[in-house]
Amino acid sequence: MPVSKTKKTTVKKTTVKKSVKRAPARRAVARETVVQSSKPRRMVGPLSAIASFWRRYFDFVGRSTRAEFWFGILFAFLVNWVFAYFFPGTTVSLIVSAILFIPIMSLSVRRFRDAGISVWLYLVPILLVYLIPIIRGAQWYSMMAFGYVSSGMALYALFFIVDTIFNIVVACLPSKR
User: Fold this and answer.
1) Residue 23, domain member (yes or no)
2) Domain residue limits at 134
3) What total of structural domains would you count in the chain?
4) Per residue in 121-148, pLDDT tens?
5) For residue 38, is it within any domain?
6) 3-state secondary structure string across the chain
7) Is residue 19 in some structural domain?
8) Tell me: the pLDDT tens digits for 34-82?
9) Residue 97 included in any domain
């Protein structure tokens, strides 16, 4: 008898993949936001806030935390007060005030941005607060010398007080991020 070779065939089992419904893909921006908000914020101490105050002198972009803002403002206030106390009405105290003006302004702009408030609500009133006395300066100073206060001066003082209160409230707002 002849031996016949039989072919052995194997049958592969094929599995049918069931379609799985998946949730729609999230946008990359949304994921980045979630990742950023889940990061723990580091605490800013007085020395690091003062270092940031000088390091970010001309930095009008970005954000500043409440602690960074208040420690920087406290530092600027104390330095300005010390120079005004020991050198009253001299060029030295005016130079110190001029040196501190830009970092205070940039710090405030960053704080407004961090609180989610338009920066223009800080810049326009501040420019008005500093420009009006320059424009009306000689006339107002001569009026004050005689003890006369005009209605324009009273309105200016009221505007200054309201703007200061608004800036303090915004500085106390929590971060939007």
Assistant:
1) no
2) 43-172
3) 1
4) 999 998 888 888 788 777 777 777 777 7
5) no
6) CCCCCCCCCCCCCCCCCCCCCCCCCCCHHHHHHHHHHHCCCCCCCHHHHHHHHHHCCCCCCCCCCHHHHHHHHHHHHHHHHHHHHHCCCCHHHHHHHHHHHHHHHHHHHHHHHHHCCCCHHHHHHHHHHHHHHHHHHHHHHHHHHCCCCCHHHHHHHHHHHHHHHHHHHHHHCCCCC
7) no
8) 444 455 567 788 999 999 999 999 999 999 999 999 999 999 999 999 9
9) yes
